[in-house]
Amino acid sequence: MYHDTILSKIMQSEPKYKPLLPFSLHVRYTKAWSEKSFTYKWAARALELIRFVELLVEMGLRRKASVKARWRGIVIIEMIKAFLRCVLLRVTRRPLISPPIPEREFDPSVLPPLSNTSSPTLAPSSPPSSLPSTPDHLRNNHTPLPPHPLLTPPPPTQSPLPVEDYLLPKALTTASVRTPTALVKVLTSPKDWIAEVIYIIRPLIYASMLASDRETNRPLLTALALEFFSRNLRRVPSSSSALERAEYARRDRDILWYLLRGSIWETWTRPKLESIADSTANVPLLGLFSAVVKDWIPLIDEYYYYTAP
């Protein structure tokens, strides 16, 4: 995260680093809010920092603390995350976009150096201005041979690319000319606000119920009910709201993580994976997959944040 902020400042200060391709909608939106609101910038950074270290914190609690203290720590982490998400929601008044900070979309190794002077210990990066002269014994045969019919490429069999097909991907869309903060529309109706708040507090409710009841299906069923309730309440974005549609599509894909949680994992998914791993253990190449699965299954059993919502 720190390196990304440094590279972003360099990209802004150096005109020659201006990208040839425009930034993605996600980068434009999150970058605009980070520059517009000091509260959004630090809340988003804190939220991402917690997301990076939450599993490490749980591993430390599992080794050094009791089970009760470990789950108390998980609930505290989820409370902090829910609070930070509510802060982002209050600042933007729009659905949350994940991740809330801009992501790096370029490779720093391909950037040209800041200085045009080359080091005396390194080979020159550009060819010399004048090419060496051709030796006298090679100054002949300047007349090219006629092309042989077997060596000439055949004429093209299809017509060239139409101009419309070439220009259409390069045409501007409504999202290209819209202000970055307007890429996601403001939440207007109470139903939209309720759907977003339920989505924010859902992990906290799930972790709180798991802390006190890990034997029954109540935590899993409650989390699933909140998930689908929030999904049914949320608004349907327009076709021009590409960023919001991508966010909702990501949330829908995350529902598949419930296959690795609770009784669904214990009674259906884990037996299936164990059966596949046992059947492929002695098969060449597939045995590597079997070994990875067998090492991965205990981690899902032991740690909450491997599959946390």
UniProtKB/TrEMBL annotation:
Region annotation Disordered: where it falls in the sequence: 108-158
Which InterPro entries does UniProt cross-reference here? Pex16 (IPR013919)
Q: Which Pfam families match?
A: Pex16
Query: Compositionally biased, Pro residues: which spans?
Result: 144-158
Stretches with biased composition (Low complexity): 108-124
Principal subcellular localization = membrane
Where's it found, cell-wise? Peroxisome membrane
List keywords of the entry alphabetically.
Peroxisome, Peroxisome biogenesis
PANTHER family, per the entry: PEROXISOMAL MEMBRANE PROTEIN PEX16
Give the protein family: Belongs to the peroxin-16 family.
**Per its record, how is this protein called by name?**
Peroxisomal membrane protein PEX16
User: Per the UniProt entry, what species is this protein from, by scientific name?
Assistant: Somion occarium
The lineage, from the top, is: Eukaryota, Fungi, Dikarya, Basidiomycota, Agaricomycotina
